[in-house]
Amino acid sequence: IPTPQIDITEHEHRYYFAKGQSYKILDGVVTYVEPEPASLESLNAALLEQLDKAAADAYIGGFYSTATGDRLWYDSDKDTQTLIDGIYTRTKEDDWTTKERYPGLCPAGFAPMRARPHKDSPDTAKQVYLLDAKKIKQLIDDLDLAFFYIKARLWQLQALVEAAETPEDLAAITWEEQLAEQDPADDGKNEQPEEENTPETEGSQEL
Q: Which residues face 131 on adjacent strands?
């Protein structure tokens, strides 16, 4: 970066302007001018936008559930959310336990869901689990709880942004995903129930 009040060539002139640097012509000389610092209001708005995006990513980033009796990581993308809602609705139908809804995948009274041992486990680690109505209810309860923790974290950080008085205050505010990603299995409400003889598929069958 050229120092103030230094002559540069036309080529350099085009180069520096193309880079978006702040220069002015002072007394016929291309002079570097320190950019104005961003206002607290603009920093505030930019951070709120970042936090909204972090929350949106977290909603579709997956969640832990103990629906099977084990702590497993499930997808929560939009399609999977729709799938879980649809399955839960079907569990309330009178013929849920007698009508086979997923021929070739599981018997009547069960629905297939894929999960992996941990959030960081590869997709190849996913297995298909067959869940009955009670376990589907636990799955959707855990999904709702995971979403609540994300929303609560966003509210908390938004309040901190609004209360910030300096750029340094704003710089200290981060999403800290590990705090928003609470595990329903750790909240004490999920006692290990007596397991039914629930059929499961073998391996990591693709659906």
A: 111
Residue written as tokens 């300096």?
A: 166
Q: How confident is the model at residue 201 (pLDDT cuts 50, 70, 90)?
A: very low
Phi/psi of residue 71, each to 5°?
A: -80, 115
* Sign of CA pseudo-dihedral 145, 151, 153, 156: negative
Contacts of the segment 189-194: beta carbons below 8 A, 24+ positions apart = 190/66, 190/138, 192/66, 192/69, 193/69
What pLDDT digit, counting tens, does each position of 53-83 carry? 999 999 999 999 999 999 999 999 999 999 9
- C-alpha angle 178/153/44, rounded to 5°? 110
For residues 40-46, give the mean pLDDT. 94
